[in-house]
Amino acid sequence: MSASDTKRRRVVVALTGASGSAYGIRLLEMLREVPDVETHLIVSRSARQTLQLETDVPIEQLEASADVVHASQDIGAAVSSGSFRVHAMVVAPCSIKTMSNLAWGNTGELIARAADVALKERRRVVLMLRETPLHAGHIESMLRVTQAGAIVFPPVPAFYNRPRTVADIVDHSVMRCLDLIDVECEAAPRWTETSRRLLSSATRPAPQPFTVACP
């Protein structure tokens, strides 16, 4: 490993079985464009099934987009140790099960273990939680995991940027997620840019029918 490699920021990306595999896929794609980031991927067994149901992306292609891949059952993986320095961890998408495991200290598999380690080391952990509606138990787990230091970030779509495709919506949420771990990525319009454009009568676009098409 060269001296320049040791200076790369390690970002752990985990995919769980919740719906929303596109968030994890796009997150890895965006991180590949950041020269000083090294990605470590964990894909749960349930996530493999969801990936197959929701996308045409084979698991081999997903894994090839990461710098390092860790088996979800490998509790001895590097990312399970606090002495292995990482910049941040993002769970995208994050299931209620994974969030609850983390909230209550159930770290019997690698995703929850790696996130728990990141939290105890006071590192940034972002959970792109995918569930609705929520009952009291979910909300209690959200509170507990937030008190432990994690950021619960449901990928709620923005519409001020007038998205036209599912890809537009995914890109905006992933960009906002990357903001939370201090990784710069300009993948979608931000509020200041869009508001200036829309508030200018000279450049205001003509009304268009709103459509959302799958990428």
Short description:
The protein is of the alpha/beta class and 215 residues long. It is built from nine helices and six strands, in the order H-E-H-E-H-H-E-E-H-H-E-H-E-H-H. The relative contact order is 0.15.
- End-to-end distance: 38 Å
3D shape: globular
Strand order of the largest sheet: 3-2-1-4-5-6
Largest sheet: 6 strands, parallel
- The CATH homologous superfamily name equals Flavin prenyltransferase-like
Q: What is the number of strand segments?
A: 6
Q: Beta-strand percentage?
A: 15-25%
Q: Remind me, CATH topology?
A: Rossmann fold
Output the CATH class name: Alpha Beta
GO molecular function, one term: carboxy-lyase activity
Organism: Verticiella sediminum
EC number: 2.5.1.129
Catalytic activity: dimethylallyl phosphate + FMNH2 = prenylated FMNH2 + phosphate
